[in-house]
């Protein structure tokens, strides 16, 4: 059984996978006007995300789905392809990320005539990302054919509660009622697909971002909680980048 499993993993590693990364960046952001074109450390948010994808070395194509000609121009300048302008019905406040990703993949495959095997999702507003996370997510899908998705997850030892229909509050998990040292306590993870999420392309074609058989790459970077959707978020990110720079140079 071990020999068969090893052989299966070896054959999977030999398969040639086509990988696409799609970044959704609409122009009509409400909380922070023109947020995808706002600059952080001298670089627009959309260009930063494109750079992360390209630097990962794990994707064959970086595509930006946008309804904005200005964002499209900046994305092309940064090295992404923008083969179409996103239709208006996929650019309003009620449009889902899943519908946008499905549209981007199917449209680009139809235009190029080249199907993709693995799809990567990242956002321009999640800025504290390591390009290595993208590469690791893609590599795990290549190595483990049984996995449907691999994404980042932030580790937390905090307790979570949810309200019941009768108005009472209960812990999310019964074991959370036992309080112990953080060093030995069980943890849960926050799903951080905006940092890096790789999935089988058939999931996206079905309108799903992630599957059910997953692997989570667990991280402890508290700065990843900064997701830029307001002026305050942007100022917080600027301060955090300064702190991180001081840490690296200190």
Would you write up a description of this structure?
The structure is a single chain. Helices cover 35% and strands 21% of the residues. The chain is of the alpha/beta class. The strands form 3 sheets. It has a 6-stranded mixed β-sheet with strand order 4-1-5-9-6-10. Helix 2 crosses helix 5 (131-143). The radius of gyration is 20 Å and the shape is globular.
Note the quaternary state here.
single chain
Query: What is the CATH third-level topology name?
Result: Spore Coat Polysaccharide Biosynthesis Protein SpsA, Chain A
Mean pLDDT: 92
Q: Which structural class is indicated by helix and strand composition?
A: alpha/beta
Spatially, the strands of the biggest sheet line up as 4-1-5-9-6-10
Cα end-to-end separation: 51 Å
Please report the first level of CATH classification, the CATH class.
Alpha Beta
CATH architecture: Alpha-Beta Complex
Largest beta-sheet characterization: 6 strands, mixed
**How many distinct domains?**
1
In brief:
The protein contains 7 helices and 10 strands. It has 250 residues and is an alpha/beta fold.
Question: What descriptive keywords fit this protein?
Answer:
250 residues; alpha/beta; Spore Coat Polysaccharide Biosynthesis Protein SpsA, Chain A; 10 strands
Architecture blueprint of SSEs:
Blueprint: H1 2-14, E1 19-24, E2 39-40, E3 43-44, H2 45-56, E4 61-65, H3 69-77, H4 97-112, E5 118-122, H5 131-143, E6 149-156, E7 161-163, E8 169-171, E9 188-200, H6 201-205, E10 214-219, H7 231-249
Parallel strand pairs: 1-4, 1-5, 6-10
Antiparallel strand pairs: 2-3, 5-9, 6-9, 7-8
Helix pairs in contact: 2-5
């Amino acid at each position: 059984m071990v020999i068969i499993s090893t052989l299966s993993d070896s054959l999977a590693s030999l398969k040639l996978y086509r990988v696409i990364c799609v970044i959704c960046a609409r122009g009509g952001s409400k909380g922070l006007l023109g947020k995808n074109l706002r600059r952080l450390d001298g670089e627009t948010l959309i260009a930063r995300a494109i750079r992360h994808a390209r630097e990962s070395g794990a994707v064959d194509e970086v595509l930006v789905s946008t309804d904005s000609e200005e964002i499209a121009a900046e994305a092309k300048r940064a090295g992404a392809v923008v083969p179409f302008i996103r239709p208006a019905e996929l650019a309003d406040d009620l449009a889902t990320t899943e519908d946008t990703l499905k549209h981007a993949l199917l449209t680009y495959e139809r235009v190029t005539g080249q199907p993709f095997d693995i799809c990567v999702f990242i956002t321009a507003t999640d800025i504290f990302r390591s390009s290595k996370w993208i590469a690791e997510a893609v590599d795990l899908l290549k190595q483990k054919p049984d996995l449907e998705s691999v994404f980042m997850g932030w580790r937390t030892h905090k307790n979570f509660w949810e309200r019941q229909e009768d108005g009472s509050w209960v812990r999310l998990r019964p074991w959370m009622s036992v309080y112990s040292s953080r060093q030995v306590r069980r943890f849960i993870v926050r799903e951080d697909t905006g940092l890096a999420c790789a999935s089988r392309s058939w999931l996206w074609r079905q309108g799903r971002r992630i599957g059910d058989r997953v692997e989570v790459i667990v991280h402890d970077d508290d700065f990843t909680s900064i997701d830029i959707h307001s002026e305050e978020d942007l100022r917080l990110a600027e301060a955090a980048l300064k702190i991180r720079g001081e840490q690296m140079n200190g």
